[in-house]
Amino acid sequence: MVVLAVAGLLAGCGSGADRAGGPAGAGGAGGLPSSHVHGVDVNPADGTVYLATHDGLFRYGGSGPEQVGPVIDLMGFTVAGPDHFYASGHPGEGADLPNPVGLIESTDAGRTWRVLSRQGDSDFHTLASSSAGVVGFDGRLRISADGRTWQDLAVPAAPFSLAAAPDGRAVVATTEGGPIRSADGGRTWTAVTGAPLLGLVAWADGQTVAGIAADGGVFVSTDAGLTWQRRGGVQGRPQAVGVASVSGGLRILVATGDAVVESTDGGAAFSRLPAGPA
């Protein structure tokens, strides 16, 4: 039953191919800009929160989410650096991109995108980036140092979510059987003994990883994914998690079915980001 709970964590996102070309701006519950959220992260250029959704990319300004760039069903999304994003998925109406888009890159905080590789072939449902490159899963686990040339890797189970250390050496993946961990960039994997059954993970710094369980439990590892401690919890069904190290603490973002919530105390307490006008 716990395996089914983790599988259900992301089941609401469904197939990107089934949803490609859906209406932009359809909106979700509680003021979310889309009913399907696939990624949430912080742009280190200015600390702004970005939300990757079925209806495109949104940035959270003072009055709520504002759409950025073309409408793309962003199934996979990762922030690689200041204003530097990678993504994957399907083009929306008016977007001059292949379907699926393969790996695409933005160096202007999502305003424009260019295709790097695997256009027409890959829809990466999860992506992670580091100084070593990009790792993603499109039915196969793949790694690329430059975003253009890829190497296939073996993985014991299909990952729901991937998170990579800043140097790319350690990678954590969530699976139906629990988290697994690689210490060599995804080339070999071991189960994380005693870990909670996490559905979503995100990496903050060299040693710190945050994870969300199907019941909304928020966990943090301070030893690169080897051990985990529960810090708190969120209400609602988790759809995406993002994390960043900030002065004096850890900033954790969770997109649920009806809100984006934020903790600035390492996961002990959460508050909603502004949803904007009703």
Structure description:
With 278 residues, the protein is mainly β. It has a single domain, classed as Methylamine Dehydrogenase, Chain H. The protein has helices spanning 2-11, 16-19; strands spanning 37-43, 48-53, 56-61, 64-68, 72-81, 84-91, 103-106, 114-117, 126-130, 133-137, 141-144, 151-153, 161-164, 171-174, 180-182, 190-191, 198-203, 209-213, 217-221, 229-233, 240-246, 249-255, 260-263, 271-272. The strands form six sheets. Strands 1-2-3-4 form a four-stranded antiparallel β-sheet, with no helix packed on it. A hairpin with a 7-residue loop joins strand 7 and strand 8. The protein is globular.
Keywords:
four-stranded antiparallel β-sheet; 5% helix; globular; Methylamine Dehydrogenase, Chain H; 278 residues
